[in-house]
């Protein structure tokens, strides 16, 4: 079983029934990442040049035929970060950054050999976000990303021109110790092994045929 599979306990995650204060027994200090602000941008870019690196197998025979490309990590690489506070909007700032999205490119070479290579899609961000006041614990900008390239064509020199669907979630966060009310430790249910139950239908059969014997004439 699991938290949400035939497990009945008031010490497990789920919806609250009754008074939510019942069972609350302590205050707990939790180390967490507090998100002060976040925004999402979803764009489609066309004719973006992907420069291939670390091809496997090495030295493919050109020209290459594009198959697909997608991001390999949900974490974006932030560079050229510039945060400019706005005098007329307290705690609001203009955040400029370049977000790099790592992608894996699949292709076949001129000999029909399938290959894979790495590349990066860079997206420029220029947005307004809430940025907390200066403190001993520094804030940081983070990015969660996704990229899918369904179309692409070989250019030359190990590059593709692609059309990509991009998602970038930019966040301003601080690692903090935060105090929260708690119901105590969580109860962990025993594991329930998965079974296809291939014999279920067979075991449901009666031991002997049902019905009465034919009567003699």
Topology diagram in text:
Layout lengths: L25 E26 L1 E4 L8 E7 L5 E9 L6 E17 L5 E17 L9 E15 L4 E24 L17 H4 L14
Antiparallel strand pairs: 1-8, 2-6, 3-5, 3-7, 4-5, 5-6, 7-8
Labels describing this entry:
single chain; 217 residues; mainly beta; 8-stranded antiparallel beta sheet; 1 helix; 8 strands
Outline of this structure?
The chain contains 1 helix and 8 strands, in the order ββββββββα. The protein has 217 residues and is mostly beta strands. Strand 5 and strand 6 form a beta hairpin.
**Low-pLDDT stretches:** none
How much helix is in the residues?
under 10%
The gross shape turns out to be flat
Cα-atom radius of gyration: 29 Å
Number of domains: 1
**Distance separating the two termini:** 57 Å
Percent strand: over 45%
SSE class: mainly beta
| Strand tally | 8
Order of helices and strands: EEEEEEEEH
Global mean pLDDT? 89
Count of discrete alpha- or pi-helical segments spanning 4 or more residues: 1
Major sheet description: 8 strands, antiparallel
Account of the protein in words:
- The structure is a single chain.
- The chain has 1 helix and 8 strands.
- It is an all-beta fold and 217 residues long.
- It has one domain.
- Strands 1, 2, 3, 4, 5, 6, 7 and 8 form an 8-stranded antiparallel beta sheet that branches.
- A hairpin with a 6-residue loop joins strand 4 and strand 5.
- The protein is flat and about 70 Å long.
């Amino acid at each position: 079983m699991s938290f949400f599979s035939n497990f009945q306990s008031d010490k497990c995650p789920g919806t609250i029934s009754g008074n939510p204060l019942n069972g609350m027994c302590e205050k707990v200090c939790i180390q967490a990442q507090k998100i002060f602000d976040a925004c999402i941008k979803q764009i489609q870019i066309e004719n973006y040049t992907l420069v291939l690196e670390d091809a496997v197998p090495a030295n493919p025979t050109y020209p290459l035929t594009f198959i697909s490309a997608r991001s390999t990590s949900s974490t974006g690489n932030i560079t050229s970060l510039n945060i400019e506070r706005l005098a007329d909007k307290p705690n609001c700032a203009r955040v400029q950054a370049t977000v790099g999205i790592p992608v894996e490119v699949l292709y076949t070479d001129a000999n029909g050999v399938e290959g894979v290579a790495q590349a990066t899609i860079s997206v420029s961000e220029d947005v307004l976000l809430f940025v907390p006041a200066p403190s001993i614990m520094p804030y940081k900008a983070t990015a969660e990303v996704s990229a899918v390239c369904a179309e692409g064509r070989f250019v030359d020199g190990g590059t593709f021109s692609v059309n990509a669907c991009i998602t970038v979630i930019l966040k301003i966060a601080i690692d903090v110790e935060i105090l929260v009310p708690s119901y105590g430790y969580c109860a962990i249910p025993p594991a329930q092994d998965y079974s296809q139950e291939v014999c279920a239908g067979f075991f449901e059969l009666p031991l002997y045929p049902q019905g009465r014997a034919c009567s003699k004439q």
